[in-house]
Every structure is written in structure tokens, then in C-alpha cells.
Design brief:
Layout: E1 18-20, E2 25-31, E3 40-46, H1 50-88
Antiparallel strand pairs: 1-2, 2-3
């Protein structure tokens, strides 16, 4: 077996994707069908920025929801003021 960089720790019976939380990496094995299960290619992804990007995405979505909610609430209150409150006063 040839390796480049740090060799993977996936064994023969555990040939599934594996996420190493503390080491910020993700191993993804792929069997090469053309070679009749003789070889496996294991790719190690660096996922150090994924958690940071995920929380940034959640923050952007939360901000967007707050902006949309404020706009809809303000527009509704303004419309109700002209339709219901002004005629009564």
C-alpha cells in the first residue's frame, strides 16, 4: 500500500467514512470498482474551518430572520394603524 502524508487508520472491516472531531479531519474511503476490490483510495479532508463557517451561516440566517420579522411586523402595524386606529380616533 502506498501512502502520501500521514497514513489513514481505517481497517479492512471499518471501511466507512469517519470524522475525527479532535483532530479536525474526515476520512472518506472509496473502493475502485474497476480494480475488483483490490485497492481502496482513502482521502483525508481538513475540516478545521467547517465548524466556524457553519456557525457563521447560522448567524447570518438568524439575522435575516430578525430583519424580515421586523419589517413584516412594522408594515403590519403601520397598515393596521391607518385602517383601524385612525378611523376610531
Amino acid at each position: 500500500m502506498g501512502t502520501f502524508g500521514e497514513p489513514p487508520t481505517l481497517t479492512g472491516e471499518r471501511r466507512r467514512d469517519h470524522y475525527y472531531r479532535w483532530q479536525n479531519r474526515y476520512d472518506a474511503p472509496w473502493d475502485m470498482d474497476l480494480l475488483e476490490d483490490r485497492y481502496w483510495l482513502v482521502i483525508r479532508h481538513d475540516v478545521s474551518g467547517v465548524q466556524r463557517e457553519f456557525f457563521a451561516f447560522i448567524g447570518r440566517i438568524t439575522g435575516l430572520v430578525i430583519i424580515i420579522s421586523a419589517f413584516v411586523t412594522g408594515t403590519t402595524l403601520d397598515g393596521l394603524r391607518w385602517l383601524l386606529i385612525k378611523p376610531v380616533l
